[in-house]
Amino acid sequence: MLLLAILLPLTAAAAFYFVQSIRAQYYISLLVSVLHLAFSFSLFMGWYHPGEFILFSADSLSQLILLVLSNVYFWVVLVSLAYLRRREISHSVSGRRYYFLLLNFYLFANTAAILSNNFGMYWVASEATTLSVAPLIYYYRNEEALEAMWKYLFLVSLGIAFAFIGILFLMLSSNGTVLEGKQLFFTEFAKNSVLLNPIWLKASFIFIFVGLSTKIGIAPMHAADVDATSNSPSPVAALMAGSLRITALLGVMRIFQIVTPSSVHGFARTILIMGGLLSLFVAFVFMFKVKNYKRLLAYSSVEHLGIITLGIGIGGLAFIGAMYHIVYNSMCKVVLFFIAGNVHREFKTREIAGVSSVINLMPWTGWLFLLAFFAISAIPPFGIFFSELMIFEGMLFSGKPWVLVITMFFMLFIFINMGRALFQMLYRKSEHEKILNEPERFDITHFASIVLLIAVIVVAVVSPEILREHILSISKDFGIKL
Amino acid sequence: MDINTLLQGIIALLAILLLAPLFAGVINKQKAIFTGRIGAPVVQPYYELKRLLRKETINAGSSSFISDISPAVNLIAMVVAAAMLPVGFMKPLISFEGDIILFAYVLGLARFFQILAAMDIGSSFEGMGASREATFAVFAEPIFFFTIGSVAFADNLTSIYDIYHSIKLNNVTYIVFIVVCSISVLILAVTECSRMPIDDPNTHLELTMIHEVMILDNSGVDLFLYQYSSYVKLCIYAIVEASLFYPFAVQNSYVAVIIFLVVIAALATTLAVVETVTARFKLKFVPQYLLFATAIGVLNLLIYTFTK
Amino acid sequence: MQNVLSIIFCLSLFYLAVTSRVKTYVTVLQLQGIILTVLLLYPLIEHFSVPALILPATLFIVKVYLIPKYIKKILLDLDIKRIIEPTIQQFSFLLLVIFTMTVIFVASNILSKSTGIETIPFASGFSAVAVGMFIIIFRKKLIIHVAGFLVLENGIFLFGSTIASKLPMMIELGSLLDIFVVVFLMGIALNKISSTLSGFEVTALRRLKD
């Protein structure tokens, strides 16, 4: 049954080679995404227990992230048809033809990566996700998109090669022990990791972390992701920000899980904390000078993934907060990118200075943008408030309260800069007042944004028991005791 | 040292001193044949040297005592260096612990005096040649120490004779090591003796001269001493290269001498071919070229140390 | 035998560091492909088996024939200039490569005393990774970046094949998959770049800076 879930999008993608009409492709993709969402939801709720299939299995972490992926994917597919139908985008006919094919291939690859329980399979699936996303970045077929696609493809492939070296070191660390030749299954390695050679384990962790950080989009190698996210069409950017980064983070968490019982644990935590702080620093610096609102959102992604990494590194309550943060962050980012896509469609520019008085001209978009900004900046009752509160509490009670001080300092300025840019876009009256031909219609992006924002509030306030159970079991896997 | 080795050493030294111009003549003859000419006879360098002895020595008015003593110092240094080489794989005349350093720096002394004498003449031609020679010598020095020195470092030997005799032919790694070393030493020989592709010994143009230009204003006995020293230097470097092939000749001392002569002849052919085929490098590429040879030497050092 | 092949591999890396012609990169990549194929064929001398011949054969075809042919075709189509203009002097580059190689060799010697790896192939592979990274950082042309990436992959292959004696298949297949798909896509991307952007220097890719 697991295999069916993985292969279904692949068959859909293959079928699109023959089915040419975009409408038909859209409906088939929508059906596939609904089935996928149903499957991951039932997996998450525990209504269905699949067995282990070779190389694939689903433990709590996989189930959580799979649900996140399905959710993001469903909403992205939902708005895709309206996006593709826009007549303003002229020279992307060929992009339109391959759009759904690539989306379904992406779903296939990402599901395989999340459900894998073997580092080798994870690595191959990660490579496949990169290859499926890169042509999607090039959708607009202009020079900046080309440059973004080239940089993304090149730097992420380099990162994946580094992660491969890390996997080789992991195999090397198992030389001479019981695990030798056991094909890098996570669970086996995690159980016996005290037997592994610590030097090679450390090297493996560093290489995998640095290599995957290109994909996660945190420092030290965040540049490619930022460029790619800011130059791709909004649904693709939402997809990348919501699900691709989390899958790469899954890889880092798996190696962290392997490292946890062994002596390298403290070293790994230090590296994660440093990575998180560095990402916050990078977001802090670049927010001052960013002039392009999509790039602003991309740096905001860097910031939030940095916070998640920091939470994982600190451990304890912060780890649990980081898990909640994964869920809420992906939903809020999807909303933000959809809204940004709407703004781009009307104003035809990505510069902040070119956009003005959105609140008057496009009331639906403007108000939703404001609410989404509140959501991502951790204002209650949106969920991110609760998850960041947990992370901060964990940081305060860990042995390193100075981390909290630095984090809050950076986040204060990030909030100020982002707010300044946003309020300029929403409220500023410019000299050339743009006149719209018709009042703004309520379309599907608004619908999706409203549903997602309500979901963020509801999940945070109601705090369903099943989510809590899952997150607690994940933290037990990672050796966190409350 | 018993009388046998002493006699062998003296014969070896005399052989080098007498046969050095012949080596250069063989190279020139082969170059001529490759380019389709008949060329000068093989003993032509001897005739040149004899002709130079008859001429008178003129020095510049502003020159000092350096110009007087430098040619002689050159020759003496070459003779001392030649006395330290294992010709035909036999024990050399001067051989003690640490003589590898003496070898390198006796040649350095000769170069030092030559540079000083060139600047002493006071003409800008010689100054240009002196500056080029000094620059290339800086980059060429590490090559010698890294290639020969890698064996010295690994075995803690510091005498040239011992170093060459300790290269054993155990497995394929050493064969590759020797081949790679000989490439490095060939590049070194080409640089030190101012052959192509570093310098062109045939053309006497400002663009291409390094060694030739330093002795441009010398004549008579001085020039005889300089020319003769350069022939001996070429012979010395050829022997340094050929002695790397020692392990092939362990059996019998007569076979050793024959193999030695064969290798020297092959080296002459190689030099002739290289000189015919290559064009001179741009001067700014020469440090890079020499660094490449040093890199090979460093690699050899690393591999030799870590295979032990 | 592994040592000898690693030595030749390292020499090819030095040559890459000093060269200034674009075609030399392709030739050195072919040479490295041949070295790796021989390395894979060597254990077959003892226990020969036909299925084990598939991997070296594919490796040979891909690395020595297909990829160089593809790169040469790109060079011809896009009419790329024959000389690369480096960002830093050749001399300093070679010095950096020598220094890095020394550090890597010494480090792997220290490491090999505690774990059971063979020093020289491991260090050669790792220095190929380092040289590949330096090529990517310090050269301007995009096609040279692709060549640097391929050198990096060769390095991973070399030291991967000495580590994993129990699982040879996974490593080699992983590398091959990586190279194949990546080069394929990079070729397509370069074709598109040639028709839209004017040059092939990385300096032309400046639009996305902040």
What report would you give on this structure?
The complex is a heterotrimer of chains A (482), B (308) and C (210). Chain A has 482 residues and is mostly helical. The mean pLDDT of chain A is 82. The longest helix of chain A has 31 residues, at 143-173. Chain A is built from 19 helices and no strands. Chain A is globular. Chain B has one domain (3-306). Chain C has one domain. Helices cover 74% and strands 0% of the residues of chain C. In chain C, helix 2 (22-41) packs antiparallel against helix 3 (54-78) and helix 5 (119-138) packs antiparallel against helix 6. The longest helix of chain C is centred in the C-terminal third of the chain and has 29 residues, at 168-196. Chain C starts with a helix and ends in a 14-residue tail after the last helix. The chains are: A mainly alpha (482), B mainly alpha (308), C mainly alpha (210). Chains in contact: A-C, B-C. At the A-C interface, helix 5, helix 6 and helix 9 of A face helix 6 and helix 7 of C.
Fold topology:
The complex is a heterotrimer of chains A (482), B (308) and C (210).
Chain A: H1 2-15, H2 22-45, H3 60-84, H4 93-115, H5 119-137, H6 143-173, H7 186-191, H8 198-216, H9 223-231, H10 234-259, H11 265-289, H12 293-314, H13 317-347, H14 358-361, H15 363-376, H16 383-397, H17 401-427, H18 444-462, H19 465-477
Helix pairs in contact in A: 1-2, 1-4, 2-3, 2-4, 3-4, 3-10, 3-13, 4-5, 5-6, 5-10, 6-8, 6-9, 8-10, 8-11, 9-10, 9-12, 10-12, 10-13, 11-12, 11-17, 12-13, 12-17, 13-15, 13-16, 13-18, 15-17, 15-18, 16-17
Chain B: H1 3-34, H2 44-54, H3 65-82, H4 99-121, H5 124-155, H6 160-166, H7 172-192, H8 211-214, H9 220-242, H10 253-277, H11 286-306
Helix pairs in contact in B: 1-9, 1-10, 2-9, 3-4, 3-9, 4-5, 5-7, 5-11, 7-9, 7-11, 9-10
Chain C: H1 2-18, H2 22-41, H3 54-78, H4 90-112, H5 119-138, H6 142-163, H7 168-196
